[in-house]
Design brief:
- The chain is 5% helix and 50% strand.
- By secondary structure, it is mostly beta strands.
């Protein structure tokens, strides 16, 4: 009789369901419907992740014990935040034979996240059966694309005609008395402990002769720490031209300092007064 039991043991073991993460959903709201294929989430928004666990084991008194973690990663595999870790204890009755444990949490997308294919990795451990399962749930992010740099530099310098403008000026032509506004991105700075950055910048208006006509009174600074490394520093400037300013080819000067990396950068971005 014993040889027969030994022969049947592999079949009995293989018949046991494997721990599995099923029915994943990524949504813009808690308990909301899944987003359609190809949907792009915006940098800075919060998405909700939900899934179920199948193939879990039960103790003799019908107890279920699961431990799980949820963590999101960008397109380069850099985690967006600390993993969300939790445990689940539940009692399953005979009427709950179709019940599947639910896992859900929110995932904040960093405000300056780059566009690309991201993923949420869900890991589950069955504390009774000592088995594990893992599932990567993909999602897409639409953000501000910035070309990286090994050294401190200004990218994407754009002129605008008003402070709240959403569309850059096709040609940086202005008239005396106009407001001149600009936005640009600072990249290539170094990180300290806990992804600390210490970046400051000063802008100025330079005349055709090279004379500095105006400099902002105080440097604008970004001194911060974050779990997810800040890939760029968004910068702005604005000034109202004097009504008596002469026509000619002028420039906005930008001086940037990276205190952590000990770097500096200087650039000039031309505009015309007609």
């Amino acid at each position: 009789m014993r040889p027969l039991l030994l022969a049947l043991l592999p079949a009995l073991l293989s018949a046991a369901p494997a721990l599995e993460i099923v029915r994943p959903i990524v949504s813009q709201m808690d308990g909301g419907p899944p987003e359609p294929s190809g949907f792009e989430h915006l940098a800075g928004e919060t998405l909700w992740v939900m899934c179920r666990v199948a193939g879990y084991s039960k103790s003799e008194d019908q107890q279920v014990r699961l431990k799980y973690s949820i963590q999101a990663f960008d397109s380069k595999g850099v985690p967006l935040d600390e993993p969300y870790i939790n445990e689940m204890k539940a009692e399953v009755s005979a009427q709950d034979k179709e019940w599947l444990p639910r896992i859900a949490t929110s995932v904040p997308i960093p405000p300056l996240a780059a566009p690309g294919a991201y993923k949420v990795v869900v890991k589950v451990e069955d504390l009774l059966a000592k088995t594990t399962a893992e599932l990567a749930i993909p999602f897409k992010v639409r953000g501000h694309a910035i070309e990286a740099s090994e050294t401190l530099v200004v990218r994407n310098f754009r002129f605008f005609r008003d402070e709240e403008g959403s569309r850059p000026a096709d040609k940086p032509f202005y008239k005396p008395g106009d407001g001149v506004f600009a936005r640009f991105d600072i990249v290539g700075y170094k990180f300290g402990e806990k992804n600390k950055i210490d970046v400051s910048y000063v802008t100025s208006v330079i005349a055709p002769s090279g004379k500095v006509l105006w400099t902002q009174p105080e440097p604008a600074t970004d001194t911060s720490e974050s779990f997810y490394p800040k890939s760029y520093v968004p910068a702005v400037m604005g000034i109202n031209l004097q009504t008596t300013i002469r026509p000619g080819e002028y420039a906005i000067g930008v001086q940037v300092k990276d205190a952590v990396g000990g770097q500096t950068y200087e650039g000039k971005f031309p505009f015309t007064i007609e």
